[in-house]
């Protein structure tokens, strides 16, 4: 079960975005597993994709099509990742674009394909292509919740975030969905996320906004350290709510949009961690006092990836020695352990590299019993800081991943 | 339970090495938890230690004492790692050396201390020091099996290897023990290992032999990716069986010793993986066709650390897509996935970056059902190769580490 409040908020409509879906029987019958996004003409679209060398066929195709110009359609299937599928996989990803382009009367390069699910099997093309027309027929602007459900794999809950904000008297909307619960780690961790706004933003700034906010959200979460072959995050700006274009970072409206997008992206990213496979706890690892953000990140990830720390969190065992060990092997050079402070919640567990004298097991156990825990580390050597979000490692993680294909 | 044959072999006596042990009640009453090694005068000793910045107090003291000259005694306690213990921890490690030195009439710097167990608690010094005399009183040359049992923590089985070999008509012995089942990863993975021989080898070559063989054994295993604060491996050469000193790598006898030591170290390292926490399978990850051994290692470890690969191995599920994904995110530059071949045992699962056409789930399932599995990867871009050993990730790993302190 997901940790904390993961409820779907009211998903405000984004003008210029329509969503359709269908049951295409990609892997299982009788489930919504095919989703189509339609963007109004003139929509600016930016994307970031997995760094995995074995990136999936649809990722190759989406990157190429995005370079060629703004897409009008996204087509997303769950149940099959179309990764590790060689040339037939590439052909299938392209064929999906061709077919949708033909039905929607656009160029094939105006379609971006996305897939998520099992790696290494070919898509059931006949069933998938047959689902495109019904999905197109169902296009409407209020289907964000259906889309969130339609892209789930091992997720236990659909994931959405939505905000409205005002610029110069005009009300705009920022709405997005994400999916992912396993194979989650930095470098595009989400597996899939789609965010859209009807605010008017120039193409250059759209890409910049996406990169900046992904680095504070999806690139700061980890569940199991496994970088997926399919991770993609798309940000679409329709500009359909009117107003003059925001084309400079010096425009005061830019910082408002940045704030809203950061909140939406962080929420969508954290929802993935809260729904982490087998997760019983939501963990914030905040590292401060570093020379640069890279070393703060290295240490935060070292803690967040340690199976020993994660099982101790699952057991509500304040076994803080495992946290110190993870700090120690993060590979940060010239670390002076005698300057290091560590807190579990509001309880200091490590002072100047050793056990804090006033620390008690009772105080540690009180923090560990909570379902949302912050591990804070001060390296005592600089001003940089960074934060990573993760979950614990439970029996159910093993169960889910040992059973996934059966 | 450990995987495969982990039985203790006949542990041949090493001339010039005596071993004693006692029940000091470091953590639990009525168990052998204190071990002492005594080396004959003139014994050459080499050591390698953890790279963890939070290395334990006894590691600091052992490194310093080893720089000062050859030790005559090792003193090892289990139950408490004396790590993350600050200045009191350093004082306790030194006090242990002083006390043993006083009882044995040597210099304190001729004693190396070792600890393994829970991190972050102070040693029960009164009980530990009281155990030293009984341990000294029990010194005898045939106590290797007792020592292997006396250094165990979460190990389910004591670990030993022993060989005899002949050089110029003289029979020599190489005998060693190791311990460790969790917090195991490269850069001195063993937690603790002690190996001795009575062959005559010069001090310089002792250190070189240790470094060379550690890199093919303890530095090539991983269970959970957690580098311990206490890892140490000691190689002691007593030269007590006679013969002229081996002082050059060109001496034909050197390569004989190197072969024997490599086998003994590999066996001791693999025993740790076979006894990995919750392990049900022993996995060999062999990567070949790389530009250099580093990239072969990077990919082998990426596979060996992936929780998704490890849970699939536990489930006997030939979910080879997870192996491809782990290869893809290993961070190796300019990887041409279309040149990559992957085998599960004798079954080729991936040909030229995609599914092998003749692969069947039945063939994959047959290999995955075995308790010893080799994953072989050919990168198709060079002559380098390297091999890493690991185990699967099971419910019991979580259980053991969620319960360890209770």
Could you provide a short overview of the structure?
By secondary structure, chain A is an alpha+beta fold.
Please give a structural write-up.
The structure is a homodimer of 406-residue chains. Chain A has 406 residues and is α+β, with helices and mostly antiparallel strands. Chain A has two domains: 17-274, L-amino peptidase D-ALA esterase/amidase, CATH 3.60.70; 282-403, ArgJ beta chain, C-terminal domain (Ubiquitin-like (UB roll)), CATH 3.10.20.340. The first copy, chain A, is 32% helix and 25% strand. Chain A has helices spanning 57-68, 86-104, 125-130, 132-137, 144-150, 203-214, 252-274, 293-305, 307-314, 321-328, 361-368, 395-403; strands spanning 17-22, 34-39, 44-49, 73-80, 111-118, 159-167, 170-179, 192-197, 232-237, 282-290, 341-344, 347-351, 354-355, 372-378, 384-391. In chain A, the strands form three sheets. Chain A has a six-stranded mixed sheet. A five-stranded mixed sheet of chain A has the order 3-9-8-7-6, with helices on both faces. The radius of gyration of chain A is 22 Å and the shape is globular. The two termini of chain A are 20 Å apart. Chains A and B meet through helix 2, helix 9, helix 10, strand 13 and helix 12 of A and helix 2, helix 8, helix 9, strand 13 and helix 11 of B. Chains A, B: Pathway: Amino-acid biosynthesis; L-arginine biosynthesis; L-ornithine and N-acetyl-L-glutamate from L-glutamate and N(2)-acetyl-L-ornithine (cyclic): step 1/1; Amino-acid biosynthesis; L-arginine biosynthesis; N(2)-acetyl-L-ornithine from L-glutamate: step 1/4. Chains A, B: The record marks 116-117 as: Involved in the stabilization of negative charge on the oxyanion by the formation of the oxyanion hole. Chains A, B: This is Arginine biosynthesis bifunctional protein ArgJ. Chains A, B: InterPro entries: Arg_biosynth_ArgJ, ArgJ-like_dom_sf, ArgJ_beta_C. Chains A, B: The record marks 189-190 as: Cleavage.
């Amino acid at each position: 079960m997901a940790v904390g409040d993961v409820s779907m908020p009211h998903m405000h409509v984004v003008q210029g975005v329509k969503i359709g879906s269908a049951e295409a029987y990609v892997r299982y019958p009788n489930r919504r597993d095919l989703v189509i996004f339609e963007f109004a003409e003139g929509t600016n679209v930016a994307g970031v994709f997995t760094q995995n060398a074995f990136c999936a066929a649809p990722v190759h195709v989406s990157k190429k099509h995005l370079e060629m110009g703004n897409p009008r359609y996204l087509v997303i299937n769950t149940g099959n990742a179309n990764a590790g599928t060689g040339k037939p996989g590439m052909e299938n990803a392209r064929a999906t674009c061709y077919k949708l382009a033909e039905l929607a009367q656009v160029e094939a390069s105006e379609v971006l394909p996305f897939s998520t699910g099992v790696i290494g099997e070919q898509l059931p093309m006949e069933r998938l292509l047959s689902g495109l027309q019904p999905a197109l027929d169902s296009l409407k602007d209020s289907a964000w919740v259906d889309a969130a459900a339609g892209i789930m794999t091992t997720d236990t809950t659909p994931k959405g975030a939505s905000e409205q904000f005002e610029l110069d008297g005009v009300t705009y909307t920022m709405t997005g969905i994400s999916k992912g619960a396993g194979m989650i780690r930095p470098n595009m961790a989400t597996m899939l996320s789609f965010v859209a706004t009807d605010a008017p933003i120039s193409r250059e700034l759209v890409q910049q906004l996406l990169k900046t906010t992904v680095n504070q959200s999806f690139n700061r979460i980890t569940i199991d350290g496994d970088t997926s072959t399919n991770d993609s995050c798309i940000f679409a700006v329709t500009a359909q709510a009117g107003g003059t274009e925001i084309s400079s970072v010096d425009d005061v409206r830019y910082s408002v949009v940045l704030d809203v997008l950061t909140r939406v992206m962080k929420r969508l990213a954290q929802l993935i961690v809260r729904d982490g496979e087998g997760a019983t706890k939501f963990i914030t690892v905040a590292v401060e006092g570093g020379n640069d953000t890279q070393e703060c990140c290295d240490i935060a990830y070292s803690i967040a990836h340690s199976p020993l720390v994660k099982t101790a969190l699952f057991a509500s065992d304040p076994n803080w020695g495992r946290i110190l060990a993870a700090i120690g092997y993060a590979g940060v050079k010239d670390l002076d352990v005698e300057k290091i402070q560590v807190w579990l919640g509001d309880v200091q567990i490590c002072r100047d590299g050793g056990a804090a004298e006033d620390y008690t097991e009772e105080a540690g156990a009180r923090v560990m019993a909570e379902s949302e825990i912050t591990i804070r580390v001060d390296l005592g050597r600089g001003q940089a800081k960074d934060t990573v979000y993760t979950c614990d490692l439970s029996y159910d993680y093993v169960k889910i991943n040992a059973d996934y294909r059966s």
